[in-house]
């Protein structure tokens, strides 16, 4: 295998872990300002800046999020953010400039803009996560907050043309988990075209299966988990994710069929 090059930034990314236990210490104002500024400096599709992030500082809201996610540790996170795709702000700006935001000419509500705004929110979150980890903090990305999207919209008073994307919990780590194995690069990087050969996929997954199995066995030998392919097969038919789709987007003013 080709030897990797190392510097501080690369090593932060290569050693990324999800931290789910935090020391009860707040982030300093300087840390908070730094990681938020890092999020603001990411690329933005067509310079629309079409994302926002809500700092969750009220303990009752943290408790509500932890209940939605079914993950109690969320309530103990020293810093907690909910990232949203945000075309509401751009709608307000466009209206003030005389834009026809109440007509069919208004396209910020359509599928392309929705997707790009979602991408921008994820990029901002990842920049914040990386900046936080470079400062010695630990993070975990929270897709679990999408268990109840209508409740999120209600809790955070999300207006029309906004939609929740992901959460991010941040704090000083109170645990040292191992770095989770990654599948071989051949399975995710292709030259010129996608390799859709099932035998190629399964041949390479066989080795990865063993790595993942060992990782989970070492982490908790009392509750070993199945191999990677068995986990994927189970998740492929998991019905609990059906409520986390985009069916709630129409109530937020988006027209995703256009």
From TrEMBL:
Q: Does the keyword Oxidoreductase apply?
A: yes
Q: Which InterPro entries match?
A: Flavin_OxRdtase_Frp, Nitroreductase, Nitroreductase-like
Q: What are its E.C. numbers?
A: 1.5.1.38
Respond yes or no to whether keyword Heme is given for this record. no
Instruction: Spell out the molecular function terms from Gene Ontology.
Output: FMN reductase (NADPH) activity
Indicate the enzyme's highest-level EC class.
oxidoreductase
UniProt cross-references to Pfam families, sorted A to Z = Nitroreductase
Q: Which UniProt keywords apply?
A: Flavoprotein, FMN, NADP, Oxidoreductase
Nitroreductase domain residues: 14-172
Would you identify the family this protein belongs to, as annotated?
Belongs to the flavin oxidoreductase frp family.
Q: What is this protein called?
A: NADPH-flavin oxidoreductase
Q: Which organism is it from?
A: Bifidobacterium choerinum
Taxon lineage: Bacteria, Bacillati, Actinomycetota, Actinomycetes, Bifidobacteriales
């Amino acid at each position: 295998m080709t030897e990797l090059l190392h510097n501080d930034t690369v090593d932060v990314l290569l050693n990324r872990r999800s931290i789910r236990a935090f020391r009860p210490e707040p982030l300093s104002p300087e840390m908070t300002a730094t990681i938020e500024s890092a999020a603001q400096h990411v690329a933005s599709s067509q310079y629309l800046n079409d994302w926002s992030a809500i700092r969750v500082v009220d303990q009752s809201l943290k408790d509500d999020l932890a209940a939605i996610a079914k993950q109690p540790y969320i309530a103990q996170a020293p810093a907690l953010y909910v990232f949203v795709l945000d075309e509401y702000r751009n709608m307000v700006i466009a209206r003030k400039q005389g834009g026809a935001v109440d007509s069919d000419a208004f396209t910020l509500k359509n599928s392309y803009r929705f997707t790009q705004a979602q991408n921008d929110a994820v990029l901002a979150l990842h920049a914040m996560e990386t900046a936080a980890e470079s400062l010695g903090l630990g993070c975990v990305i929270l897709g679990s907050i999408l268990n109840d999207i209508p409740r999120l919209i209600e809790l955070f008073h999300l207006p029309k043309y906004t939609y929740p994307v992901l959460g991010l919990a941040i704090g000083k780590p109170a645990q040292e988990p191992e770095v989770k194995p990654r599948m071989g690069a051949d399975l995710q990087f292709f030259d010129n075209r996608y390799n859709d050969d099932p035998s190629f996929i399964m041949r390479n997954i066989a080795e990865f299966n063993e790595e993942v199995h060992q990782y989970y066995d070492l982490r908790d030998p009392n509750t070993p988990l199945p191999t990677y392919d068995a986990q994927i097969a189970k998740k492929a038919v998991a019905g609990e994710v059906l409520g986390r789709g985009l069916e709630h987007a129409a109530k937020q003013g988006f027209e995703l069929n256009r």
